[in-house]
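Table S2 (text version). Query chain:
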Amino acid sequence: MKSTALDQLETYKAIEAVCIENQSSWTNVQEFRGAFSRFALKVAQLDLLSEHPGSVAGSRLEHLIMEIEHILKVHFDRYFDYLKQKNDEIYQIYNRIRRS
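Corresponding structure-token output:
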């Protein structure tokens, strides 16, 4: 697995950890719950795929990263922008991880 993809995986895991630690902030938001479930599944798939490098894994890896980035842009970024008004601390943590 390329180091860039490993870095992205670590970033995704950090975002996942922030969400889990602050679950009470979003547990009542149905759309975000669904997005988080899809995100967590894709991150787990990426983690498993990273353990089995190969040519087939490479194309699947790129596809998974694109899917994860789409979830982040369409759902997470919007939700955390909204959350900024209610909980700036969580927004700042997410934003710092996302922009790193």
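Notes on Table S2: Residues 6 and 50 are 8 Å apart (CA to CA). The radius of gyration is 14 Å.
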